[in-house]
Write a structure and sequence with these properties.
- There is one protein chain.
- This protein has 2 helices and 2 strands.
- The chain is 48% helix and 15% strand.
- A two-stranded parallel ribbon has the order 1-2.
- The protein starts with a strand and ends with a helix.
- It has one domain.
- It is of the alpha+beta class and 52 residues long.
């Protein structure tokens, strides 16, 4: 059963890992970052892992 999960602080560290891991597990993840550069890096990482 897929869930929608909201994660704050997903730009680095544990938040980033949790967002990517939960997306990989099939959940819909809404992830926030502090700055645009973190958002860009997170989206690139998700794209590289075919999560987007």
């Amino acid at each position: 059963m897929s869930k929608t999960i909201f994660i704050t602080g997903a730009g680095t560290g544990l938040g980033c890992g949790a967002a990517l891991g939960l997306a990989k597990a099939g959940h819909r993840v809404i992830a926030t970052t502090e700055i645009t550069a973190q958002k860009t890096a997170l989206l690139e990482e998700a794209k590289n892992k075919a999560l987007r």
